[in-house]
Amino acid sequence: MTAASGQSSMACLRELRPSLGRLLDRHLAKAQPWFPHSYIPWSRASNYDGPLRGTPWAPEQSTLPQAVQDALVVNLLTEDNLPSYHTSIYKVLDDEAWMVWAHRWTAEEARHSDALRTYLHVTRAVDPVALEQWRMRHVSTGYTGDHATALHLLAYVTVQELATREAHRNAGTACGDPAGQQLMSRIAADENLHMMFYRDLYADALHIAPDLAMQALADVICAFRMPGATLPGFHQRALRIAAAGIYDLDVHREHVLQPLLRTLGVTTLTGLGPDGERARERIGQHLERLPAAAQRVRELAQRAAVAEQQGTR
Ligand SMILES: [Fe+2]
Ligand SMILES: [Fe+2]
Hints:
Blueprint: H1 3-15, H2 17-30, H3 66-80, H4 82-92, H5 96-123, H6 128-141, H7 150-175, H8 178-208, H9 210-222, H10 234-243, H11 249-264, H12 274-312
Helix pairs in contact: 2-8, 3-5, 3-7, 3-10, 4-5, 5-8, 7-8, 7-9, 7-11, 8-9, 9-12, 10-12, 11-12
Bound molecules: fe (ii) ion (FE2) (2 copies).
């Protein structure tokens, strides 16, 4: 990033103020209040060992397939790092109008980890001690977004919110528990509204500063990693999650990137200079490479599953 592109990016952000106000009003009108406690199947709860002298957790208590357990752990630990995300946004968008959105968004996001953890505890779906140890490690490590410009941050959260919606929704579908599915659909609906806010803001950014916004979008799409990628054991879990079809590069291409690029009008956008055109080409080339990359992940996942089976015999 050059100093000039950083400044132009901030200038674009200032020009987005009217869009910010409009989209925040739309978000507040659309967002339905909901209450995590009402989604938790409390009748399935029982005390754990420790001060209450209940029953310790054991793997056979979980009714969820391993890949769904993996997905829920990844989704929950990703949500757990909310303080780091808030700080990342604060560092880039340190301005009163933007922080109104950031605080509201943070308040909504906080429900997700709250509800997911309670669901996992009540249903004994994963080892609660390991879960807490992973949370401590993950949140203590923190997340540094490392976004080159404010537009990179906006592009990143646009893709990430949609990817997160798919991750929650697909984990819910795969979990085989109506209560779990209801909760995860509810969380996915929140992520959808967050995605719409950022996406429509980004559509305006592409018209205000087409070249800069297209370059930031290309940079983000070509190097995209979920914020949970740093969590303990992510690689093995990601392979099992991909093998189960909950989230893989096909889902990423078909249900995240393609619809997003279509709605943003990336292929039809006019007014691009040479830098913007090159960025648009980079996005196209990245999409073309994804099916082969998805196939490689499938092969890796198959090999990992075989190795795991042989290891447990
Ligand atoms: Fe969330
Ligand atoms: Fe979200």
